[in-house]
Specification:
By secondary structure, this protein is of the alpha/beta class. The protein has helices spanning 3-27, 36-58, 85-89, 111-117, 129-144, 169-177, 218-248, 256-261, and strands at 60-65, 75-79, 97-102, 121-123, 148-151, 181-186, 202-208. Strands 1-7-6-2-5-3-4 form a seven-stranded mixed sheet, with helices on both faces. Strand 3 (97-102), helix 4 (111-117) and strand 4 (121-123) form a beta-alpha-beta unit. The relative contact order is 0.15.
Length: 262
Amino acid sequence: MSKFSIVLRSVIYNVVFYANLVFWVLLGIPTYLMPRYGILWIAKMWGLTSIWLLEKICRVKLEYRGLEKLKNEPLIIAAKHQSMFETFALVSVLKEPLYILKRELTWLPFFGWYLIKAEMIAINRAAGKSALVDMTKRAREEIRSGRQLIIFPEGTRKSVGAPPTYKYGVSQIYVECDVPCIPVALNSGLFWPRRKFLRYPGTLVIEILDPIQPGLSAEDFLRTLEAKIEDASNKLIDAGLREQAALFGRSPVLTPSEDATS
């Protein structure tokens, strides 16, 4: 696929992606009068249609591995975070998805109101330590009610090849909630790069790893989680780089120096 084709397809997809978002936002207005399940269904449909459009327009094929490990029961799902893609791809495969997000997102018209309706956990980052306490308490209540918490342990999107920076918050939630944690590895940053509009063709893989059972100390858990996610993600990235090398001669996402060290 030529560079011009990739740019053109990416432009088309980005326009269609946000048009699709507006469509589902408007279609979801009646869910304000419905139980939480209504808006969660809208979110899943938005995710599924966005994934379908990405494959048809940009030729990005999504492959899930280990989906059978995701149970419709209280769970913590700790995922690598390289792009916006996994935020809706994971929602689409869970019955009762739950996110922890910054409070400012709930101020957005319609979208933020939907987050409130879906009973997501909004935190005030400026509150410091008290925000962590409140977040943990709310997460424990929601997870024990049967929901599946999706959390990005690094706190933000990281570019492919960036050093990992796992935060303590996920350990606190794991210890307090006393439920299994499912690590998730992926290579989305090769096909939907952070802070870039280009979408590159290839096989985007989301791999559900074996659960970490409750009972570890916070420190042991964090070490185990990081090792599992980073090892599996690096393998997926290596496979993705080989696929991109076959298509383009080298990775279009990484610089030559980064490509050599990946």
